[in-house]
Amino acid sequence: MKLDNRIERSKSAALFEEAKKYFPGGVNSPVRAFKSVSGPPLFVKRGYGCRFTDEDDNQYLDFCCSWGPLILGHNNVAIREAVLKTVTYGTSFGTPTRLGNEIGQLILDNNQYIEKMRFVSSGTEAVMSAIRLARGVTGKSKVVKFDGCYHGHVDSLLVKAGSGLATFGVSTSAGIPESFAKETLVIPLNDEAILEATLQQFSDDIACVIIEPVPANNGLLLQNKAYLEFLRKVCTKYGVLLIFDEVISGFRVGFEGAAGYYGIQPDIITYGKIIGGGMPVGAYAASSEIMSHIAPEGNVYQAGTLSANPVAMAAGLAAVKELLQPEFYSHLHYKTRVFVKNIQDHCDQKGYEVSIVQMGSIFWVAFTKDKISRADQIDPASMDKFKILHHELLQRGVYLGPSGYEVGFVSAAHQPADLEEAAAKICASMDVVFGG
Ligand SMILES: *Cc1c(COP(=O)(O)O)cnc(C)c1O
Known about the structure:
The protein is an alpha/beta fold.
């Protein structure tokens, strides 16, 4: 299908051509290159609330929200003021700061699933450190991950299933030694029998199971609560640590993330995205006992030059304070539900094969009526429909992440009127996708 371009993207296009001279593929993170949708990526110059403006001065209602961190929208006043005030005193000292204590206390006092935490600078770093911690605590080496969960670009987790049932991983990236990939076992989501068989067979070697309890990096593959409870139970039974990678779900589905949502106590939790208020911050957290294995208290080494730097801590602290306001999450979730229902109703009325999967303020457009809880249930051919949808939405001033496997996020800055506007534009775009 030929897609016509009604909006002007020539400045973004020129900047992208220039960027290709400096950065591989013109970008500093692959999905930004718009490879699976049409046209050049948008070069964005400013954002406010739920909207941002590109270099061609087009305005968009943003549902990517920097891939999740911006739960308060763009350019939140409290975060901006906290950053501006803090930066006046300097950007980094490489020493502990009072601000670090403040955010540490605020988070730990309001999350019953963790007792101590360590700040790092990205979600990947949090996951990498959590895996090392699990290995250090258990003295075992293998990791179980799930097909369809993403945990950042950690070597041993850029791995997909080989052939066979509980299979040793095969790396999905060049540059990862086979011996690293072999330390990872990849199994499907939402399947109790395979999970237990794997743990039973390899429990002497398995340090941890890592899961996105709300898998949101390959569609939104919501798991049964009973399955997650089973996962907790068998990890305990076989002496394997359970890591919840809550880089997306943490502070998103509720202040206590998925652990709080499902009422499940993991052994280690990783955070990122929202925790930094839009600055580069990650964290991993656990019981005091498990965290006591981290240097300098224990013998698992992990360090960071810019870890917990005061500007990032100020941004994170300002964000976290807002999230603790009464009714913050119930308002956000309610307006997301209304938004999603508007689109779903339109699609149902027209007979389109679409389900908008939603949890809290996360949503995902699935081009099927089937309930999907595993990665292999997503039809790759449906991505052709997403490509048209994405294009039509750009023409109408709505921005979704540039891949059909990515979820969308609603922020507190999306007002009901913005969401009505967006829903109408999404419905109109769906009409084009389905030729209705
Ligand atoms: C984004 C993400 C990561 C990686 O975080 P970065 O900050 O991009 O390194 C890890 N795990 C999950 C679940 C994520 O969504």
